[in-house]
Amino acid sequence: MSQTIQDYFDNAQLSQASYASLEEGMTPDVITAALKGEQEGAHSAAQASRFASQYSIVHAQQNTSNGFSATLLKDSAGQYTFAARGTEGAYNDIGLADLADIGGKGIAVRQAVDLFNYYQLSKQGVSQLDLSRPPC
Hints:
- The chain is α+β, with helices and mostly antiparallel strands.
- The protein has one domain.
- The chain has helices at 5-17, 28-38, 45-54, 91-105, 109-122; strands at 55-61, 70-75, 80-84.
- Strands 1-2-3 form a 3-stranded antiparallel sheet.
- The chain is globular, with a radius of gyration of 15 Å.
């Protein structure tokens, strides 16, 4: 499959949006405000508005105790996208996941378990996702 510049741009927007505090059921205006307000210029007003008009938030898993955070989005064509947030400044992300796990073991084990649990729960239905009670 050949990627276009537009595909790369759209994927970058999805990736950056995963850092915002998004929640299921947010209106486009609230999504726009979250993207503009929380991320210190990562999205311009036009980018945030365009994003909010194209995507709805199906589910958002905000930071677990291990630093895992991800958002499941649905675009206006009905296609789903899973966007996992990368490292942010919290100790559980930099200290435990990046330095101890990736540096020592080659993988962020705790976050990988959270991702696995997220996937297992998502198979049960998005409305039931809650990583505070993981299945394994």
